[in-house]
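Section 4.2 – Deliverable D4.2 (structural model, holo form)

The reporting period included a commitment to supply a predicted holo structure for the target in complex with UFG. Inputs used:
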Amino acid sequence: MDKTVLVTGGAGYIGSHTAVALLERGHRVVIADNLANSSAEAVVTVRRLTGREVAFHQIDLTDEDALDEVFAEHPIESVIHFAGLKAVGESVTAPLAYYRANLISTLNLLNRMQHRDVRKLVFSSSATVYGDPEQLPITESARTGATNPYGRTKLMIEEICRDLAASDPRWRISLLRYFNPVGAHPSGEMGEDPLGVPNNLVPYVMQVAVGRRDRMRVFGADWDTPDGSGVRDYIHVLDLAEGHLAALEHLESGCEVFNLGTGRGASVFEVIKTTENVSGRSIPFEVVGRRDGDIATSLADPSKANEALEWRADRNLEVMLRDAWNWQSRHPNGYADKVGDDVDVPTPTPPD
Ligand code: NAD
Ligand code: UFG
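Output (structure tokens):
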């Protein structure tokens, strides 16, 4: 493999791990990111971990001219589109910002791709498009129906992609519905670094373990689940990154949707217990009321991706949380702790 892949949002959590996986597979990588929710240090880390050069353009995808300059400068063959805003609660209070950031960016990207004759796309969708599922595990044919503006942007982008693929058979598009991405690069040098108070369980529990926060709040212990707490299908970010490589390598004419999950569920209490085991720290918690919009259980049926993409998410909860802890304990304040780091890493090779 030796292809140039544009990774939008490549400074972010999933994008940076996928950039490393692409580089390790021999692809060339160009990152476009406005750093609205990430740090340039993540791009430096991608270079350090792989010893490869990575072009980085700090641009906002709502600026179509800036985006076109990226296509003009590099021989881009395919695009993995991660860029977007993703906080569910914020999308409810600031819907226009979400529709603008997610929809305008995507329209600009697709327009530039069409103009530049680049028609291979892998898009970050989300299990949030399933809303409160009627059946478990969830297959790709399940009813969709998002319950917040963030989720609706994902559904709208999926429809836009389907219409585009129907208009011209040269388009090859994969829509990847991720379940709950967690974990970090096993080196401990790259991981999730949320701004402010984390919304999600694993970043929060890690900040409690490292002493940045006092205690966990468990949002309900009265759900219809084995131990009463919410159950999710957590997937290691490295398995997810490998899923993107598989999707890219298996792109076919048209637009296909795939669940990326493990098919195994874990409860909030299991996540707390396993974090205590891997970190050796105790995690104080209190059970509070249910969080608005939460569901009891989300669980993927990943068999379509297992078969069609020849991909499987194998890393278990303990590995996910061990790697997350490795990152968090080495960098209690995330990338802010890495600025100016003098890590022993391979020297980057210049681009070919
Ligand atoms: P992230 O916030 O870490 O990464 C997104 C990146 O996009 C950030 O670096 C941000 O600066 C950048 N960005 C945002 N708006 C931009 C714009 N207008 N122009 C250029 N760059 C912009 O999030 P992530 O967790 O890595 O998620 C990546 C994608 O996966 C997102 O589309 C998200 O909706 C989707 N997703 C994430 C999860 C999850 O739980 N992390 C679950 C399902 C789907
Ligand atoms: N939870 C707590 N305490 C916390 C945070 C979460 O008990 O402080 C519980 C939740 O109630 C839920 C579970 O932990 O039962 C997981 O919650 P997350 O917020 O980590 O994940 P969600 O499944 O609610 O949502 C995430 C993303 C969504 C995305 C969805 C599916 O935030 O954007 O996964 O991919 F749509």
